[in-house]
Every structure is written in structure tokens, then in C-alpha cells.
Amino acid sequence: MTVQERLHATYLVPVVVIDDAANAVDTAKAMLAGGVDIMEITLRTAAGLDAIETVRKHCPDMLVGAGTVLTVTQCEEAIGRGAQFVVSPGLNLDVVACCAEHGVVALPGCVTPTEIGMAMGAGLSVVKFFPANVYGGISAIKALSGPFPQVRFVPTGGVGLSNLSDFVHPAVHAIGGGWLCDRGAIKAGDYGAITAVCRQSVEIVKSAR
Q1: How many domains does the chain have?
Q2: Residue 68 has what pLDDT?
Q3: How big, in percent rounded to 5, are the helix, strand and coil portions of the chain?
Q4: What CATH number does residue 39 fall under?
């Protein structure tokens, strides 16, 4: 199964903020216990790169990506640490090219027809839609899927348990968000809470698909 196939099969992409890489493996195991085998570890903290490397080394069942990748340097560092996909909040064609060079999936943020067209020109058919709640949510995705039927979206931002089912749609490749792995729960070592939310989210998706 390819990375893109895996993303679509699991349909949930937790946006994970790790403050201490020592917590990364327990966090990954908590999500796996809840039925989620994907994690996007953001580079918003100094622990991000170490966390990516640690999870890749100790949790082979987890598909690990890097999030909040803003530059080619960050992209190369994340891939060097083992990132299997790279997520950016916006469209940086240099980062997309870097991913292509290394054979790694790129998920840049695209919310306008112009950005989507540019991403298609770079060879992409799946893009992040961020922040989803600000740029029209599922209504916007449905509208964009009209002129871009070959593109699928990964909405992230403003999605949670209360509206998760709304985003299950043929134009949606997967759904991302921080609700799946609360930063505070990681800090507190409350891994049971992470497992519970992941399990509940998996059930919602199964019922809606």
C-alpha cells in the first residue's frame, strides 16, 4: 500500500505537537491502540525532528509525516530523519519539488483555484485544505471539486468530534486535526485519553463512509 493509499484508508491524520521527544513513542502507541496508524509530527517545537526519528525507529506500524514544513531545509531535515510524507500550511513549490526528488509525498495547503492549479502543475492530486473552518469547510471543498474533480483534499483546522462526519465526502482524501492527539494530554501523560478519542473518531468515520 502506498503512502497515499494508506492515508485514504485510515482517513485520519492526527496533527501531533511533541514538546519532549521522550513522549513520542508512548503517544504513537496510544494512537495505534485507538486504531489510528498515521501521525503528522509538526516542526513547531524543537523536539519535532527527534520525535519523527524516534517513532520511525521504535513504531514500525506507524506512518510518520512531518508537519508545518515551511522551507526546503526543514523538508530535507525531516526526510533525513525518516518522514514518509511532508505537510505544509501553504503551497511552496520548492518544498514540493524537494519531496518529489526524494520520493516523498507532499501535502501542501491549497485553498484557492490558483493554488490548486499550481499544485496540479507540480504533479499533485491530493492537497491539504487549511484552515478548513476559515476557508469555507466542506462547502468550499464541494464547490472546488466541481472544476477540480481529479483533486482530493485533506481538510485540517476546525474539525473535531462534533463535526467530523460532515467532512466524510468523496472529494476528501483524509481528515487532519489536533483533536486526535491533544497536546495537553501528551504533556500530562494521559495516553488513555488519546486512545479513546482516536477510537471514537475511527468509529465516526466508519459510520459515515
Answers
A1: 1
A2: 98
A3: 45, 20, 35
A4: 3.20.20.70
